[in-house]
């Protein structure tokens, strides 16, 4: 089992090279090994292109016969954007397949198919590590809703702005670079209209190399300023509003290339749960919320958040804007408790990461 773990670990490292480019597909890495020698490597680069197993098998060529194929996720067995990987695996003549984790997509049945064709097949090697790496895909495959990360940058006393609304910049340069890297890895970044009006942010990934995310603005009354800096690329903007939004403003934004998603109002605001379902329908698998007090609280109350990142700077602000508003919690046994918590130092700041 030790060699199996070693090769799946190597395949997981390969899979990570697809971070930020494979959505709505999972990150997958694969190796072909024969007599202790790696003769093929592959990772999934982007949706619509060859899967990791196919790339590794093509590299191995005829040498793949009687070799062992290692893959981090159960091979697909259905037609999608590409043919089933199980067909390529069977045709290659490999004698054994070792899989990191089962694919949560109910259409995938690769493990059973390979086993029924007489190929020695095992599954569940470094399963926890494989699942954690593809946490976004796992949720999306099961629910068709995006994995939501809530990010907060605050002072040591929990403030995200001064009493006059100044918030640039509470945390340091290293934390900002870390967030820009996160932006390049997710499908979309989401803020509320108040944050857009107050800060006029670009919401791009300019501090790192990588793609810029889709920008989602939650704006129930369509106060979206047409001269906002993000309007330089309107085709990458989604404005989430309600069905009661002014039709004239809807038309104006659509004519400029902005996509509008309208939900039934919930207490006069955008229904975030309904919004997440709609975003999933648009194949948006991950969302990073970088808003203010109001959207942070709404996202938590409506239970759309999966993971929280809190960057804490070693400074005190005193009177200012709290990171969260009223969450409706009256008793300590009702508090939102984070799980699987980890901490790390980023420059002078501390990052606390946890799951809900």
Describe how the helices and strands are arranged.
Elements: H1 2-15, E1 29-34, E2 37-43, H2 52-60, E3 68-73, H3 85-92, E4 96-101, H4 110-116, E5 120-123, H5 127-133, H6 135-143, E6 147-155, E7 159-162, H7 173-185, E8 188-192, H8 193-199, E9 214-218, E10 237-242, H9 247-255, E11 259-263, E12 265-266, E13 269-270, H10 272-281, E14 286-289, H11 293-301, E15 307-313, E16 320-322, E17 339-346, E18 349-355
Parallel strand pairs: 3-4, 4-5, 6-14, 6-15, 8-9, 8-14, 9-10, 10-11
Antiparallel strand pairs: 1-2, 1-3, 7-16, 12-13, 15-18, 17-18
Q: Note the overall shape.
A: elongated
Number of helices: 11
Query: What's the number of extended β-strand segments?
Result: 18
Straight-line distance between termini: 33 Å
User: What fraction strand?
Assistant: 25-35%
Helix and strand sequence: HEEHEHEHEHHEEHEHEEHEEEHEHEEEE
Q: Which class of secondary structure composition applies to the elements?
A: alpha/beta
- Order the strands across the largest sheet as they lie in space: 11-10-9-8-14-6-15-18-17
User: Helix share of residues?
Assistant: 25-40%
**Backbone CA Rg:** 23 Å
Unreliably modeled segments: none
Provide structural commentary.
The protein is an alpha/beta fold. The strands form 4 sheets. The protein has a 9-stranded mixed sheet, with helices on both faces. The model has no long low-confidence stretch (mean pLDDT 95). The longest helix has 14 residues. α9 links the parallel β10 and β11.
Give a summary of the structure in a few sentences.
The protein has 356 residues and is an alpha/beta fold. It contains 11 helices and 18 strands. The chain is elongated.
